[in-house]
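Why show two proteins at once? Because comparison is the fastest way to build intuition. When a single record is shown, students tend to memorize it. When two are placed side by side, the eye starts asking what differs. So, the first record is below.
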Amino acid sequence: MGHSRKRVITGETAAGVGATYIVVEGFEDTVNIQTQANGTVTTLTIDWTNQNILYDATALAAVNINTPNDPGRYSAPASADWNQIATAVGASQLQFPVFAIRIDITAGTGSVVYQITQG
């Protein structure tokens, strides 16, 4: 048995349309996400994935041609398999481990302030 610790990740997305990717600790089975709009955020989604979005298949292929890329486990952030949690700012919670969270603003000129707590 190990011990768990609470890890708080805070930040703010860039203003306007675009996605922000936040890698979290994959062994924690409770993920709480608090979001608040800063300015005008018309449409957004908050999503999760279990794929490793830190894996850079292009860079790896350039240095080691013989290393296979397993598309089921590794993915570029924009092409990962994302699962939607919410479509509005506020509170969201997951009760299982994830690799990363994405806040994707699809309409508006504002930003989103976020706080993610695990454990």
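Second record. Ask yourself what differs from the first in the token line.
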Amino acid sequence: MNGLPSTNPGQNSPFLPRRMGLESLIRTLVEEHATMREGISKARVAAEKNDFEALARILRELDPLFRQHIADEELTILRLLIGKLGVKGAEEEIRVFQQHRPIYLLMQKISGFAQMSTAELQASQEELRNLFERHAVAEERMVFPKAETLSVM
């Protein structure tokens, strides 16, 4: 759906959707948003302190969580929404999920911090924090409630 590496089960990915009820999955996804927010904040602090070793470690730790999170959202939540509403009816949610790729690419860019100036690194960190925050809020306030409502129909 978004072309991120290792989220497509057809590409021998370890990131298959977790088998759990929708309510449990959404609760888990919301908890993961909090974990990722915390990680992004820690990465920002590490970047501000020029602690590039910690920055790289934090981003490496977030990577598999983010990939699993995307697999669950796209292969469970988005599939449910499109199945119930059709592509046209789920346009807003599709736009929200299309934010996964820019977030992931920005995380990868920051991981390549060795080629960035301090100013570029700080700007990228701020961009990542803002983009992720808007994305997480849209999922929690719009996408997940709609998925829950549709799952009982």
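One difference worth noting in the second protein: The domain at 19-151 is CATH 1.20.120.520 (Four Helix Bundle (Hemerythrin (Met), subunit A)).
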